[in-house]
Design goal:
Number of strands of chain B: 6
CATH class of chain B: Mainly Beta
Shape of chain B: globular
Helix content of chain B: 10-25%
CATH topology of chain B: SH3 type barrels
CATH architecture of chain A: 3-Layer(aba) Sandwich
Number of helices of chain B: 2
Order of helices and strands of chain A: HEHEEEHEHEHHEHHHHH
Oligomer: heterodimer
Number of helices of chain A: 11
CATH superfamily of chain B: Ferrous iron transport protein A (FeoA)
Shape of chain A: globular
Bound molecules: guanosine-5'-triphosphate, magnesium ion
Order of helices and strands of chain B: EEHEEEHE
Number of strands of chain A: 7
Strand content of chain A: 15-25%
Radius of gyration of chain B: 11 Å
Strand order of the largest sheet of chain B: 1-6-2-3-4-5
Number of domains of chain A: 1
Number of domains of chain B: 1
Strand order of the largest sheet of chain A: 2-3-4-1-5-6-7
CATH topology of chain A: Rossmann fold
Largest sheet of chain A: 7 strands, mixed
Radius of gyration of chain A: 19 Å
Chain lengths: 271, 79
């Protein structure tokens, strides 16, 4: 669907407001926002430091005691703001860290998310990658620590992995800066050249898929369905994930179109 | 018929087992799944803390400590 002009500028204002108020991120006009996600200790900050050098800003996530690092780099005359997310095994929010990573990927709507994986422990690391791919199609997988994998005589078929997952895969050894140019190129292709992906989706059991279908029409009535993958929202509702449902209400409340509509009617609105 | 399963918490250090069933729902189930513990996963008991709790297991290449009350909810069979 094509957005009307007014909708579009509303959506942009909404987005920069969410970025600023909820995530403490200020972008300058023509800057692409790239999130860095991954399990703990896989080299996210090493990738972040190698790409951004001294152009960094560190602090806390608004209202949280978790570190937040943002930094920027340029590539082919475009500016990219990289956001280093806390290390997590999952996005299904058992901890503040997971909540931050989930909310940023879900509601922060980065132009792309790089998921950093440990090449020596792919099986464990792919859980998070698949979870991110459920929320967003704008995912690049960075398989880091390939020097360690080589030492352990592990061989990884990256072409096959890319085919299987349907998103770009970039092998790196960030500590030696190996593969970082390829990573920048993959980010550029995705966000500037709008290269398409076909992220692999994990099918659920028939029972769950039926419940999702039953819920989808309701979910699609929410203004958020435009922002967040409706199937993923339906799954969280089925999970009875109360903390996430509260989060949805929070982001829904700062949605501009609904806010305007409810003010016009002079009434409160609920989810 | 399936082999008789036992709670994971009964494994002794050095013993290896195969997950058959998770007897838990909700957030804790999710947490356990996110640690890479699903039916079919092979776990090795690495050691127990002096009081027998928590217990360390090798799971998909990473050592993870579980409280014994949580390990009780994971049904395994010896391999
Ligand atoms: N051999 C090798 N070591 C690396 C590589 N990338 C990072 N490391 C090392 O791995 C360790 C963890 O790196 P970090 O960048 O702090 O990892 P992180 O993902 O930011 O960790 P958390 O923020 O704690 O989740 C550090 O000792 C790095 O020097 C790599 O490509 N090869
Ligand atoms: Mg870090």
């Amino acid at each position: 669907m094509k957005l009307k002009l007014g909708d579009h500028s509303n959506a942009l204002q909404y987005h920069s407001r969410v970025m600023r108020e909820q995530f403490g991120i200020r972008t300058t006009g023509e800057q692409y926002v790239i999130a860095l996600a991954g399990n703990p200790n896989v080299g996210k900050s090493t990738v972040f430091n190698a790409l951004t050098g001294l152009h960094q800003h560190t602090g806390n996530w608004p209202g949280k005691t978790v570190d937040n690092a943002q930094g920027n780099y340029s590539y082919r005359n475009k500016s990219f703001l990289l956001v280093d997310l806390p290390g997590t095994y999952s996005l299904l929010a058992h901890s503040v860290e997971e909540e931050i990573a989930r909310d940023f990927i879900c509601f922060g709507q980065p132009d792309a998310t790089i998921v950093v994986l440990d090449a020596t422990s792919l099986e464990r690391n792919l859980n998070l990658a698949l979870q991110v791919m459920e929320i967003s199609s704008k995912v690049i997988i960075c398989v880091n620590l390939i020097d360690e994998a080589r030492k352990k005589k592990l061989s990884i078929n990256f072409d096959e992995l890319e085919k299987e997952l349907g998103v770009p895969i970039v092998p790196t050894a960030a500590r030696n800066r190996e593969g970082l140019a390829d990573l920048q190129k993959a980010v550029y292709s995705m966000v500037v050249e709008k290269k398409k992906t076909w992220p692999k989706q994990i099918p659920y059991s028939e029972e769950v898929e039926q419940a999702i279908s039953a819920l989808l029409p309701k979910v699609e009535e929410l203004s958020l369905a435009r922002v967040v993958n409706p199937k993923w929202l339906a799954l969280r509702l089925l999970d009875s994930d109360v903390s996430f449902i509260e989060t949805i209400s929070r982001y829904s409340a700062i949605q501009p179109l609904r806010t305007v509509a409810s003010q016009r009617q002079g009434g409160e609105f609920t989810l | 018929m399936k082999l008789l399963s036992v709670p994971l918490s009964t494994l002794k250090p050095g013993e290896k087992s195969n997950v058959v069933h998770l007897d838990v729902l909700g957030l804790l189930r999710r947490r356990i799944l996110d640690l890479g513990i699903v039916p079919g996963t092979v776990l090795t008991c690495i050691g127990k803390a002096p009081a027998g709790d928590p217990i360390a297991y090798l799971i998909r290449g990473t050592v993870i400590a579980l409280r014994s009350e949580d390990a009780c909810l994971i049904a395994v069979e010896q391999v």
